[in-house]
Amino acid sequence: SHSINLAVIPGDGIGQEVVAEGLKVLSAVLPQDVKLETEEYDFGAKRYHATGETLTDADLDSLKKHDAILLGAIGDPSVPSGVLERGFLLKLRFAFDHHVNLRPSKLLPGVATPLAGQPEIDFVVVREGTEGPYTGNGGTIRKGTPHEVATEVSVNTAFGVERVVRDAFARAQARPRKKLTLVHKNNVLTFAGHLWTNIFTKVAGEFPEVTTDYLHVDAATIFLVTDPARFDVIVTDNLFGDIITDLAAAVSGGIGVAASGNINPSGEFPSMFEPVHGSAPDIAGQGKADPTATVLSVALLLRHLGYETEAVRVEEAVSADLTERGTAVRTTAEVGDALAARVAS
Amino acid sequence: SHSINLAVIPGDGIGQEVVAEGLKVLSAVLPQDVKLETEEYDFGAKRYHATGETLTDADLDSLKKHDAILLGAIGDPSVPSGVLERGFLLKLRFAFDHHVNLRPSKLLPGVATPLAGQPEIDFVVVREGTEGPYTGNGGTIRKGTPHEVATEVSVNTAFGVERVVRDAFARAQARPRKKLTLVHKNNVLTFAGHLWTNIFTKVAGEFPEVTTDYLHVDAATIFLVTDPARFDVIVTDNLFGDIITDLAAAVSGGIGVAASGNINPSGEFPSMFEPVHGSAPDIAGQGKADPTATVLSVALLLRHLGYETEAVRVEEAVSADLTERGTAVRTTAEVGDALAARVAS
Ligand SMILES: CC(C)[C@H](C(=O)O)[C@@H](O)C(=O)O
Ligand SMILES: CC(C)[C@H](C(=O)O)[C@@H](O)C(=O)O
């Protein structure tokens, strides 16, 4: 395709600022003959306060027509916890069947990590995105009374687990180390645990070159700080993936550089790319936010749309910039400009 | 009471070795006039293979008569995942209503941590022990087929949440910093999240001196590696507690020194004390296991039974030993002997 029709959702807080830089780099890296069309959407706290809407059916119809979606951040303290998360972010992941939630972690030379001894970190987490404890199943009885009971139901299907496990095996197969770790808690969550473990074992048979192992999620958090180099590709459920990818981001340079893709591999719906960080209202509008995570999300977007050369160019620009960054404080736009200049040259 | 009637469950792997050292230190620290009676139980993999039993009603009746339980570790690769966990460890926590799962994390001077810059770490996690995703509710349909659906149900009651939240507030109130952090995921698990958050807010009103805050579990893992000093007391659900206490142990000296108590505060049933680590079959029987976590669990046991002076003596002995440990390799028994000698003097 010689055009990209992109939905842009700046969202709340620093979302506006970082998305502007992401687009700057995207424009700079694309070949002259690729036409970039963008349409901006006003989802987030402001629209919610004005209209009570988070994401309507008409919104979904409109978003569906794009090739991909770039999102900044959604969330604001003025909105009760859960409203935008369930009403926008998760609604979109479910509506567009974003079952592969891709979160790479790579510690680049010169980047600060809270871990001693600058360990080697280069792995990717494939987090299931449409099942598990995120389905919103469950409920409450006798709310607000001393006899309240609240349940959360984790729903796991053979269909849903197998497709994400298969995706993770294919990704492991394509990497030099070819190693895949299943992370779950199959000794306690035995129903879901057996399903995940059995499917993992079955699909492993089709990928004889991939080395596999298994870790309980609690043990995985230990290894993420004591021996992150042991990981190559991790596949895990939605909630465990949420938890370990924040930890993974923290040890590999912080959420300022952590990118993610909410991917629908079949292409039936557009995939969405976003930094792992939130809207950080405390520093919004001050030009202090680091747009690097958004720019790396743009690289994932490019790769997903088939622009592999351009994706690599963006990633190399970020690597070079991070390595040379030093301690000089730069504004959001200065980082974006520097990255755009690198990819253009 | 001038006697302690202790149930001892060495269990599997290194459990045998570390419990022996725990008992050595316990005997050494107790005043002459306190009679220590112990009864050993053979739970674990060996008994399971011989009899198919993990924990019978008769076992529970017998255990019930003790003042407290000291456990080494349960688990062996020869037993399918989940059998001993659900059939012994969790069965006991549920049967004896061990709803306060207490896990202190303190980084002692000189102890190695994977974090750069030797941060200050001194907090305690109060993990709910009888509810949440650990109830074993849920199930499977169409097992083994492409249409399998497996569910896990997290059950949360006002009764269960309030008692553990209240316990955590009382513990925070008794500490110098008086700070309590609720860790949950109330933006996604909104049913359980609202219950936890509402009860936390309500009980906070009764403890005006305690400073409170809230963190999503994913953000909590970030702070555990970037700013662990921010934590004083954490209260959280069963599964989040499982995950963050392993991470907490990893950053504060490793699971070799992480102690825990499964506490029934009313005293209706005996409480159980155990190291956080597992049975480590790879190093079992070689005198290589570090008994420190078990010895620190003995300190929690002493405190629970009202022997505060003795508990502090054990903790101080461990601190002194750890500080002086250096790089010399000692056997399990040598560490136990050194600690017993310190507490006796
Ligand atoms: C904001 C929240 C709904 C979201 C999640 O839990 O998935 C976030 O933490 C993430 O990791 O993308
Ligand atoms: C062994 C397992 C059942 C247990 C748990 O998940 O609670 C362990 O990880 C722990 O933290 O005590």
TrEMBL record, chains A, B:
Enzymatic reactions? (2R,3S)-3-isopropylmalate + NAD(+) = 4-methyl-2-oxopentanoate + CO2 + NADH
GO biological process entries: L-leucine biosynthetic process
- Going by the entry's taxonomy, the superkingdom of the source organism is recorded as Bacteria
Answer whether the UniProt record assigns the keyword Magnesium to this protein. Answer: yes
Residues annotated as binding substrate are R93, R103, R127, D218
Against Pfam families, the record matches this protein to:
Iso_dh
Q: How is the cofactor bound?
A: Binds 1 Mg(2+) or Mn(2+) ion per subunit.
The record's annotation in Gene3D superfamilies points to:
Isopropylmalate Dehydrogenase (3.40.718.10)
Which keywords has UniProt assigned to this entry? Amino-acid biosynthesis, Branched-chain amino acid biosynthesis, Cytoplasm, Leucine biosynthesis, Magnesium, Manganese, Metal-binding, NAD, Oxidoreductase
Query: Would the keyword Translocase be found if you checked this record's keyword annotation?
Result: no
Q: What is this protein called?
A: 3-isopropylmalate dehydrogenase
What organism is the protein native to?
Answer: Streptomyces gardneri
Its gene?
leuB
